[in-house]
Amino acid sequence: MNRAIKILSIACFFTLAFWIEPKAQTKDTAMVMGIIQRGDTLIHKNILEVTVLPQRTFNNARQERRYSRYVNKVKKVYPYAKLAGEMLQEYEPKYMALEDERERRKMMKDLERQLLDEYKDDLKRMTISEGQILLKLIDRETRHTSYVLIKDFRGGVSAVFWQGIARLFRNDLKAEYDPTGEDRTLEQIVTLIEVGYL
Which end of the chain has fewer CB atoms within 10 angstroms, the N or the C? Predict the structure, then answer.
């Protein structure tokens, strides 16, 4: 009797295995690359990048509030930095294609007028610390400091003038973005924004 149950169990198992296996194979029809090493096939497939950041720990509530305010400032100015990067990509080739200096100046005046009409009020309401963050993020998005951008598009005299104005407000247009050093916290916050966590 025991033997009959064992045989019946084995027969049911094999019947189920053959019945389930073809269905499982037909569901996945994606082709993937494989590498054969020492007789073993290894699947090679690109996967999405996963960002792992250290967990934030705070020594006290004051530090946590400071960090939270910093995050809010970054979230406020980051869209403007992204816009600057997109605009540079769009307008730099057009600007460089113009050979006449007068046409270049006209293009910059028109663009400046358009930007001021649209964003002047928002930029006026920014605090000094938000301006500092914006300058760093513009460097991150464009891979050029604000000083270099002004110098390239408006000239050296204009760049020196605006650097002087920035210094009055404790800013530096020549400050470079350092994602692994001074600006590491800023880079982590921006990364969290980009992946949709913040």
Answer: N
